[in-house]
Amino acid sequence: MSNGPAGHVARSTVRPHSETTRRTPLRTFLHTDDGVTIDSVYDPASVVYDSSRPPAGDPVFVVAHGFTGDVDRPHVRRVVEALTRYGAVVTFSFRGHGASGGRSTVGDREVLDLAAAVRWARELGHTRVTTVGFSMGGSVVLRHAALYRADGEGLEGLEGRAGAHTDAVVSVSAPARWYYRGTAPMRKLHWLVTRPEGRLVGRYGFRTRIHHRVGAPPTKWGRNPVPLSPVEAVPRIAPAPLLIVHGDRDGYFPLDHPRMLAEAAGDHGELWLEPGMGHAEHAAGDELLARIGDWAGAQGG
User: Which stretch of DSSP H or E encloses residue 38?
Assistant: First the structure.
């Protein structure tokens, strides 16, 4: 397998916009900037575009799944199928998940995985990218948009990473801050990522390999610095449009999380509080996904 530059395919160089392959799904491994292989899938749009429209103008969604998900999970594939009605879709398994390499850092280094997927989407000919993240993926799309900016004003030495920026951001069921333990599901998740026996459950029960130095405040295990938090990232996303979606029955993150994010976003962000909705992909119904597709299309570009 090739050790090419980040975001380049490790196998398959087929381009989707040729006459014979435009409607054909692709699957490949990408390389991140830190050398992790990421299992990635491209699904072309199911809509039929006007033949006079340049293929490079077709929109693409890059979908970032939640913790313990991967590209083959039924709830992830359902999201992909819904969004292909509004554009092509790139999805991928985060590091440590499914067939991807590496170990999960639960939202920290995962921005590199998303950057590789966005870059691949642009290499395939798409010029308008919307990132859509759920739960952990929702925090990743926020941090990614702040760190990889079209104007080159990103942070943490990521300026100038050509082609890795997004044009619009949708964050669903995301936390606002790190190390949150205020609900029973989050206390269980912290047990999963911080305890050796929990990481065994993650590996063999959920096909998720978790790095042993995640999940606890850095003062307990010497990590420095703390990653940029989602709420700190949000003000740096502008001028890219931002949509924050959260269910009022989310069992993981209560409503103070989306409200903190929306307040930090100011005028450039939009908040949808969804009545009766639970958490992440499992709770995102077809009607909500259709509205997300419509919102992305309305952002122009």
Answer: strand 37-43
